[in-house]
Amino acid sequence: MPNQFPLIADTGLSEKDPSLYALLQEEEQRQRAKLPLIPSENYVSRAVREATGSVLTNKYSEGYVNRRYYEGQQVIDKVEQLAVDRAKAVFGVDHANVQPYSGSPANLAIYAAFLKPGDTVMGMALPMGGHLTHGWNVSVTGSWFKSVQYSVSRQHGRIDYDEVRGLAKQTRPKLLFCGGTAIPRQIDFAAFADIANEIDAILVADIAHIAGLIAGGAHPSPVGHAPVISTTTHKTLRGPRGAMLMSTGEYAGALDKAVFPGLQGGPHNHTTAAIAVCLHEASQPEFKVYAQQVVRNARVLAEELMDRGFDLVSGGTDNHLILINLTSKDILGKPAAKALDKAGIVSNYNTIPYDTRKPFNPSGLRIGTPAVTSRGMGEAEMRLLARYIDEAIEAAKRNSEIELARIAEQVADLAEQFPAPGL
Ligand code: DSN
What we know:
It is built from 16 helices and 15 strands. By secondary structure, the protein is α/β, with parallel strands linked by helices.
């Protein structure tokens, strides 16, 4: 039977849309040739990419396993159940919801589950290392709710738990967030749990940055301390861009209702499938080796940078992340990050605690080791990277494009020796 009307040609991307195809090729080449030190970025495996690009993108499935508003869920239900079961096994939690579209919607669902507008939430201030959705003022979490923000100590750049306790007792938030985006030190979940218990608040551990480290046993787990846990899946966990909420049984129903129908419609089933794949990968013995190496690499990179006169917030790192205060190097974060990018090292400028500068050109630089460790790099390569960072920053101060180009060649050689997975 001939087609009754002209169909949209079903050709591959290179033929259908050469302009977009060329852009994707360009980005793939960039990801191969440059070394990403952005601590929230990583490379997914080929298997995770395959699941992300799978036919599951064609399916609607509002609701939860065996409770859907659309038919045709024979496969989707099994996929989501697999992802949920694997999340529960990897993190040792009672309940997991794998539907949040990403970290910010996941965190918003926590507010929807437990707070009314105007209630009080407490989290770490964004410029201190927290996250926008932990009550920072430009986020709706800081304007629709009464927000109390804690800092790190001016002296040592770490959380001062007595100060957090004092503020919590004074302001009595209903939700207490721990975790963030620029915290180079281990989070003491037990200390946070004590504080939350004293004021009868629900403790939320946002483990987005460290989920992979926790899964691999390279950072203590919040399970048993925080009854609600939020995470993205694409950082150290090496999954697709997505998120999960995990909790004790007590809070399961409220969280599920808040995600759907509270905030979201149909889950992104292709992402759910890819989350299932990354959780399978995270349960393998090799993942433990990976997570430990991420931390070891960060420690070596931090030590090497300090030996070269860099001032690190908190004096080092316990995890995957290093926050550099560039003030003593006489350069700002933005020109430093731009120079590093020219040298083939991708980082991001970042505020440092008590920064006197604005976030768009702050005093700090944030780097981390998850992606380069995924490429198989170890301590020797971290020493080289510290040298390249140091040289690139000195070159930037002299405006030496020639020197940056020379470093870029060396970085490209190093990148070639350690091919990026999944490409
Ligand atoms: N944007 C993420 C990060 O880079 O840490 C946090 O949401």
